[in-house]
Design brief:
There is one protein chain. By secondary structure, this protein is an all-alpha fold. It has one domain. Helices cover about 65% and strands about 0% of the residues. It contains four helices and no strands.
Length: about 90
């Protein structure tokens, strides 16, 4: 199954946090191995996660907050396709 970049970037934090299953991790990694924009974004997200971890002392948000934020993020990501037809 091919993933598009928006799907990969939606789940990159799950991968960084080790919260996705092995099959999902493998699909995300396979996509990033062949998509330089996604691997670049992954690198930025990874650096941000390390910075937050250092500055926040490793505090973990309550599970209910994490679930609510994950749901809100998934709802806010919209992929739009626009087609322009030329008149003949």
């Amino acid at each position: 199954m091919e993933l598009d970049c928006s799907a990969v970037l939606t789940d990159v934090w799950l991968m960084l946090d080790g919260e996705c299953d092995e099959a999902t991790r493998a699909r995300l990694q396979h996509h990033m191995d062949h998509c330089s924009p996604c691997i670049e974004q992954y690198g930025l997200e990874e650096k941000l996660k390390r910075l937050l971890s250092r500055k926040c002392g490793g505090d973990r948000a309550p599970e209910s907050l994490r679930e609510r934020l994950t749901l809100d993020i998934r709802r806010s990501i919209t992929v739009t396709e626009t087609r322009v037809e030329r008149e003949s």
